[in-house]
UniProtKB/TrEMBL annotation:
Superkingdom of the source species: Bacteria
Active site, renumbered: 82
Lineage: Bacteria, Pseudomonadati, Pseudomonadota, Alphaproteobacteria, Hyphomicrobiales
Identification of the protein by name: Nucleoside triphosphate pyrophosphatase
InterPro entries: ITPase-like_fam, Maf-like
Alphabetically ordered keywords of this record: Cytoplasm, Hydrolase, Nucleotide metabolism
Similarity remark: Belongs to the Maf family.
Organism whose genome encodes this protein: Peteryoungia aggregata LMG 23059
Purpose of the protein: Nucleoside triphosphate pyrophosphatase. May have a dual role in cell division arrest and in preventing the incorporation of modified nucleotides into cellular nucleic acids.
Pfam families found in the cross-reference section: Maf
Catalytic activity: a 2'-deoxyribonucleoside 5'-triphosphate + H2O = a 2'-deoxyribonucleoside 5'-phosphate + diphosphate + H(+); a ribonucleoside 5'-triphosphate + H2O = a ribonucleoside 5'-phosphate + diphosphate + H(+)
Length: 205
């Protein structure tokens, strides 16, 4: 990435995710939160069929979100993010009810699925940088009894993440092994982002 001076440019996170906001705050970044207003499913459906793989979808949506906010605030450097979850070629979306969450976890049980976290920087509609990182998530063969109790105990909280789990909570008990960066799993590949912001002159650390 070519270094571009952005010292006068505000930094914006185009996501309403509390987790992403906290990660950036904890890293000492100064930024605004301006959630993107896009219809993710419509954007996905408009993609060419041969490009609807999990990684391409995540990156396409991250850029679309950043560009939507950039159109409103063109002088800012906008961080766009998206995460897809996939099992082979099958792509999952967030569950709508706890019952949907239970069905998703029944499908994932005993198998390794992928979390594909895409991130980009956009200014004046131009993509300055883009990156996708992947984490492999090996779920254990938990019992039906555990699954029922897990869904009952966590309820609506399961609907906030595409995998129906939060690793910082009871969700960690669903897994045998994890292969990937913790920040990627949370939906924000933080180290690559911080490096890119330094190259842009936004992060002066």
């Amino acid at each position: 990435m070519t270094k571009v001076s952005m010292m006068a440019s505000p930094l914006i996170l185009a996501s309403g995710s509390t987790v992403r906001r906290k990660l950036m705050e904890n890293a000492g970044l100064v930024f605004q939160v301006v959630p993107a207003s896009v219809d993710e499913r419509v954007i996905e459906e408009r993609m060419p069929a041969d490009q609807r793989d999990p990684v391409s979808i995540a990156l396409h949506l991250a850029i679309a979100k950043a560009r939507e906010v950039s159109a409103r605030m063109p002088e800012a450097v906008v961080v766009g993010c998206d995460q897809t979850m996939s099992l082979g070629s099958r792509i999952f979306h967030k569950a709508q009810t706890p019952e949907d969450a239970k069905r998703t976890l029944e499908i994932l049980r005993g198998q390794e699925h992928s979390l594909n976290s895409a991130i980009c920087l956009v200014r004046n509609g131009d993509v300055l940088w883009k990156h996708v990182d992947r984490a492999g998530m090996q779920m254990r063969q938990f019992s039906d009894l555990f699954l029922t109790g897990y869904v009952q105990r966590n309820g609506e909280a399961l609907l906030s993440s595409v995998g129906c789990y939060q690793l910082e909570g009871e969700g960690i008990q669903l897994f045998d092994a994890i292969d990937g960066d913790y920040f990627t799993i949370l939906g924000l590949p933080l180290l690559p982002l911080l490096s890119a912001l330094r190259q842009c002159g936004v992060n002066h650390a």
